[in-house]
Design brief:
This protein is mostly helical and 228 residues long. It contains 11 helices and 2 strands; from the N terminus they run αααββαααααααα. It has 2 domains: 12-82, Arc Repressor Mutant, subunit A, CATH 1.10.10.10; 92-223, Up-down Bundle (Four Helix Bundle (Hemerythrin (Met), subunit A)). 68% of the residues lie in helices and 4% in strands.
Length: 228
């Protein structure tokens, strides 16, 4: 195992699970290899037995380990994951979240243009106005919040509860990544016109135009520097 010290408080079980999971993903433990014993893990991470057991449970739910009573815990790289979707989102890379969101943009825009109500349009107008004002004033966090709310209001306008919930679940975690990526509002202000255009298309019920405009968010995703 890597020679790092004791971990800081965050969610101890999740932190330990993340560290062990990373070592498994990096190939430091082979498929079928036995993990260190509970006492060894407790000593290494500086945590109690209950934390180690919870961490192992998380890894087992993720399909990364297999606990065999009386024998120990073994790596199962190819195991089927039972990890809850909300837990999977927590550890998702921002690129993954953004790619999935952009795949959904076009069908969401199409359905919103077909099904939007006056209340839906009013919500979109409120958030797009907040987005512009925040971008122009240089308020990054407020602009990101308004941007996320605007996109979620479009998803709500589909009046498909499952789709709207899925979209909102992703953007909850996506917004945290945005706070890291965007150090100022330059890019957000630069893309304001695209957001205003899609609102115009949805309001008019122009399905084809809404879908074309939604595809521009793909380019927006490609142009974003995730590694800066």
């Amino acid at each position: 195992m890597e020679t790092s010290g004791m971990i800081q408080k965050r969610s101890l079980a999740e932190e330990v699970a993340d560290r062990i999971g990373k070592q498994i993903a990096d190939g430091k433990f082979a498929d079928g290899e036995k993990l260190p014993t509970e006492p060894e893990l407790m000593k290494f991470f500086g945590v109690g037995r209950s934390t180690i057991r919870e961490s192992i449970r998380i890894l087992e739910n993720m399909g990364m380990v297999n606990v065999q009573q009386g024998r120990g815990t073994f790596v199962t790289r190819n195991g089927e994951s039972n990890e809850p979707f909300s837990q999977r989102l927590k550890r998702a890379d921002i690129k993954e979240l953004r790619e999935v969101r952009d795949i959904l943009e076009t069908p969401v825009a199409r359905m919103a243009a077909e099904r939007r109500t006056e209340a839906d349009i009013n919500a979109m107008k409120q958030y797009i106005t907040e987005r512009r004002e925040a971008a122009e004033s240089g308020n990054v966090s407020r602009c990101i919040k308004a941007d996320i709310n605007f996109h979620n209001s479009i998803a709500q306008a589909t009046h498909n509860a499952i789709l709207a919930d899925l979209y909102q679940a992703m953007t909850t975690y996506l917004s945290k990544g945005y706070e890291y990526i965007y150090k100022d509002t330059f890019h957000l202000l630069e893309t304001q016109s695209i957001h205003e255009e899609i609102l115009k298309n949805i309001k008019s019920g122009d399905v084809e135009a809404a879908m074309r405009t939604a595809k521009l968010f793909w380019k927006d995703a490609e142009d974003t520097d995730y590694d800066k």
